[in-house]
């Protein structure tokens, strides 16, 4: 039995592995658009099915609007002819989200991903009106990014029922790690595409009906996650379980040190230097970096 099919409301038919690609910076913290594009090339050349710049791993909240535009242009120019590019456009304000969505569409993205507005508490009616406004502002498909641990705003299943009725809303990336919520959401809305947004739930997400995965591990080891998806899609569930276990081990290893430092550090151990994280985020110290190298080597992931 193959992986689940994308929802009928999704014109991109998103599926497979869609990494939340990194944003590269120079040593002074300035945007390095060329290396940002090179990272998109790195994952595409290793078999991923799409890319998602300006997600959490892309440090979107630490970038200004002009920098975000530059990231989108760089990634679209590099890989936009080969795989779908869905760009993050989320902001706390609806007006600013619309501005980012329109700018991304002008840059040539295939779709936009709008994280639930953050900082201020949001009720269901406000969330529905927000997404209705964003979806009406662009012609490309819009995907909801549900990550309540970072936004402080959880979408209820009842609110999702209303969101699903909005024209141009094509799917949802779920990073809530709430398995019952995700299972019920998928079961109720087979017209939408659902993407598992946590490396802890790649194979389980496919079991629940997700058509693919937005995987941080795939930013550094895309081959591993592509192999997992392809094993599942080929009906080899035993192999998919084994590969999910390897993903768990990598996920544990890259959680070492400061928040989100592991992905760029793992990339550096593969010979790809994406520079530092932007302050106030920071990279690992030398001891943590060497410990990570040892763990990854023991897992057979470094040449």
UniProtKB/TrEMBL annotation:
Keywords: Lyase, Schiff base
One GO MF term attached to the UniProt entry: 2-dehydro-3-deoxy-phosphogluconate aldolase activity
GO biological process, one term: small molecule metabolic process
List of catalytic residues: 145, 173
Protein residues bound to pyruvate: 214
UniProt keyword annotation of Transcription present: no
PANTHER family with a match to the protein in the record: 4-HYDROXY-2-OXOGLUTARATE ALDOLASE, MITOCHONDRIAL, DIHYDRODIPICOLINATE SYNTHASE
Name recorded for this polypeptide: 4-hydroxy-tetrahydrodipicolinate synthase/2-dehydro-3-deoxy-phosphogluconate/2-dehydro-3-deoxy-6-phosphogalactonate aldolase
Provenance organism: Halolamina pelagica
Source species taxonomy: Archaea, Methanobacteriati, Methanobacteriota, Stenosarchaea group, Halobacteria
């Amino acid at each position: 039995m193959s992986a689940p099919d994308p929802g009928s409301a999704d014109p991109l038919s998103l599926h497979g592995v869609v990494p939340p690609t990194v944003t590269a910076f120079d040593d002074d913290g300035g945007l390095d658009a060329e290396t940002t594009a090179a990272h998109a090339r790195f994952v595409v050349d290793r078999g991923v099915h799409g890319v998602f710049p300006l997600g959490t791993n892309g440090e979107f909240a630490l970038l200004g609007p002009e920098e975000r535009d530059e990231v989108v242009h760089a990634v679209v120019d590099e890989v936009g002819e080969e795989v779908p590019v869905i760009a993050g456009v989320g902001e706390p304000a609806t007006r600013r989200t619309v501005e980012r969505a329109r700018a991304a569409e002008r840059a040539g993205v295939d779709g936009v991903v709008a994280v639930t507005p953050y900082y201020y508490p949001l009720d269901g009616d406000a969330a529905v009106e927000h997404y209705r406004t964003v979806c009406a502002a662009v012609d490309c498909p819009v995907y909801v990014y549900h990550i309540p641990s970072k936004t402080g705003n959880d979408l209820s299943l009842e609110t999702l029922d209303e969101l699903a009725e909005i024209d141009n809303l094509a799917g949802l990336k779920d990073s809530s790690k709430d398995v019952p919520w995700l299972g019920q959401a998928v079961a109720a809305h087979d017209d939408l595409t659902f993407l598992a947004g946590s490396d802890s739930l790649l194979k389980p997400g496919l079991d629940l009906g997700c058509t693919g995965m937005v995987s941080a591990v795939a930013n550094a080891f895309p081959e591993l996650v592509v192999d997992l998806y392809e094993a599942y899609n080929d009906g080899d569930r035993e192999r998919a379980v084994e590969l999910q276990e390897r993903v768990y081990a990598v996920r544990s290893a890259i959680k070492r040190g400061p928040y989100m430092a592991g992905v760029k550090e793992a990339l550096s151990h593969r010979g790809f230097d994406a520079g530092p994280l932007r302050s106030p985020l920071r990279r690992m110290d030398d001891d943590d970096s060497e410990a990570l190298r040892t763990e990854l080597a023991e897992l057979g992931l470094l040449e």
